[in-house]
Give the backbone structure.
Amino acid sequence: MVFAQTLFTRAVDPVVPMIADDLAIEVKTAALLSSAYAFPYALVQPALGVTGDFFGKTRLMNLCLLVVALSALVCAVATSFPLLVAMRVAAGLVAGGIFPVAMALTGDLVPVNQRQVAIGRLLAVGLTGNLVGSSIAGVIGDLLGWRGVFAILGSFGLIVTIAAFFAFRGVVTPPPARFNRAAVMANFRSIFADPRAKVCFTSVFFEAVFIHGLFPYVALLLLAIGERHLMVAGGALAATGLILIALHVPWVWQIAVYGIFGFGFYLLHGCIQVHVTELSQTARGAAASLHSSFFYLGQAVGPVVYGYGFAHGGPEPSIFVGAAVVMTVGIACSRLLRHRTPY
């Protein structure tokens, strides 16, 4: 399900020019389809997390993937840009009920001493979906046009939804609690009562600002150890990658540089996620969704921060500052989370 959902995340990007040409609109206008998906995804996370805790995580994931798939099929036959935007907004509103809830479900099903590996595998599936989504969309777009991209991915989503419905029937999960507003507020208070919550959510926000925030500018720039040490190493590797990017190393080294960059980021990010799944035993869905919400808010703020820095200080100083922040996040997480390690 995570793979199917993440396919949709990047699939629209390669076919934006095709959509613009077919619907007779500017490319920069068609590019708003990505924002139409991302912003609702970020903002609705906390509500979906709560829904998963009280409605049932597997049921919510099934329902959300069904809506994402159906919205893609409507996009395949849409004849107006406003309808496309509406469907992307609809998909974004519910897509957050899949990956973050899957992370919370992992917390329910996997013992904490095995959870780092399980979350790592979940991340690998999600990242593979992101990578394959862009690649596959480009190929399908060349062969069948942008409508073919939405039709095929929507059909695939429906197949996965049906398969997951039967697969989840054998999964034993803790019964969801009965919904009431007092319990919702108590769950959020219990999450933020854990001192790790402030560290996890603040760290993932700055991760997104200073790492993912740089991603829109990449084209311009292209001219078994302990968990505590993993977080420091992750911050150091990501910061090193940023510095090498700012130094404009020869293009033949760029693949290695971005490999270091991504490896460092997910070393740090994966460790934070394990702590997030332990912030609350009864509200894991809410905790995981808050984590995702802070991350996507940081990702939305990041391009603005870097854009301002590029305009007023230049690319190199801005990226050096970003590297310093990322390194600080890694060290801070290592120190502030080590005494409350869930292992």
